[in-house]
Amino acid sequence: MRLLVTGGRTGYLGRRVVAAAAHHEVVAVGSADADVRDPAAVDALVDRHRPDVVVHTAYVQADPEVTGAGAVHVARAAARVGARLVLVSSDVVFGGRPVPYDESATPDPVSAYGVAKVLAETAALASNPDVVVARTSLILGDGESGHERLFRSLALGAHGALFEDERRCPVHVEDLAAALVELAANDVRGVLHLGGADATSRLELGRLVARRDGLDATVLRAGRRADLPDPGPVDVRLDSSLASRLLATRLRGAREFLAPGTTR
Ligand SMILES: NC(=O)c1ccc[n+]([C@@H]2O[C@H](COP(=O)([O-])OP(=O)(O)OC[C@H]3O[C@@H](n4cnc5c(N)ncnc54)[C@H](OP(=O)(O)O)[C@@H]3O)[C@@H](O)[C@H]2O)c1
After folding, report:
1. Tally of structural domains, the chain
2. For residue 139, what pLDDT is reported?
3. Alpha-carbon gap, residue 128 to 80, rounded angstroms
4. Are 134 and 179 contacting, i.e. CB atoms less than 8 angstroms apart?
5. Rg of the chain over CA atoms, in angstroms?
6. CB of residue 66 inside a 6 A radius of ligand 1
7. Does any domain span residue 160?
8. pTM for the predicted model, two decimal places
9. For the domain that residue 46 is a member of, what is the CATH number?
10. Where's the RmlD-like substrate binding domain (predicted)?
């Protein structure tokens, strides 16, 4: 099986997907190979490599052209050559509510990033008969994520606060990468939630990382997302029980993979 992984050269998740797929033929690509905003460049890239599966991780959170339109171009190019598509999406397609979201929930994004992800999902599901949209949550766990770097800097005294009211289902980057490679090789189609097993606030997550890394977790200050002028999604827990039934890969919860004494 030949996999083409967008974001595979430099992306935090993409590089892990490339590593997890080492037993397959893998092509790792980045924006120097094809800017996803350019449909002709994406078509040429896909024609050049003729993948069986495209795993699309590339995005720029602040740029809907990359996140939304770019994914549309990738989805169409994959469909044109008959390639399966594994599209990485996000819990931010939801606006927040007090109960977890399963795959039957209708997206109701409240941020530009969420709107771009919904555009990507909708186009992928409409343009390719062989697609799985994999919605995930905060990705971390190996010490290298931007989230962990931020938590460490705050624990070392940098100015800032962590939301105590936000609730999401963080996932370990290696678990997620393994699940995406599993999905590349199976025939699951439609939408699938790939969150970790534990719902945590940003503050709890920061404390878990600080303790794992031997830092003083009590230094971390609490803030409230709901108090922001434009809070975005606050409680976006993913119900990932379908994935736990369909996949061999287990998506550990943050309290497990960040427990004191665990290695990164
Ligand atoms: N990180 C999280 O906590 C989180 C949470 C939920 C969902 N997600 C989803 O997970 C996926 C991966 O996130 P990540 O944290 O691994 O992202 P990342 O580290 O920021 O990597 C993004 C990748 O996108 C590529 N890219 C950017 N602009 C591009 C363009 N115009 N054309 C082609 N490639 C471009 C970059 O490649 P170059 O360097 O080659 O430009 C980079 O490798 C995204 O779809 C995101 O929505 C992430």
Report:
1. 1
2. 98
3. 8
4. yes
5. 18
6. yes
7. no
8. 0.98
9. 3.40.50.720
10. 1-250
Q: What distances in angstroms separate CA 185 from CA 23, 52, 84, 134, 154, one per listed residue? A: 12, 9, 9, 14, 40
- Ligand 1 centre distance from Cα of residue 66 (Å): 9
Predicted pLDDT of residue 260? 86
Beta-carbon count within 10 A of 77 CB? 27
pLDDT, tens only, 9-45: 999 999 999 999 999 999 999 999 999 999 999 999 9
Using the CB atoms, write b or e for 187-221: b if 16+ within 10 Å. eebebbbbbbbbbbbbbbbbbbbbbbbebebeebe
**Is residue 164 in a domain?**
no
pLDDT at 261: 81
100: helix, strand or coil:
coil
Domain assignment of residue 23, given as a range: 2-142+171-197+237-251
**Given this model, what pLDDT does residue 229 score?**
93
Atom 24 of ligand 1, nearest CA residue: 58
For residue 146, the CA-to-ligand 1 centroid distance in Å is 12
pLDDT in tens, 90-128: 999 999 999 999 999 999 999 999 999 999 999 999 999
Q: Does the C-beta of 88 come closer than 6 Å to ligand 1?
A: yes
Distance 7 CA to ligand 1 centre (A): 6
113 catalytic residue (yes or no): yes
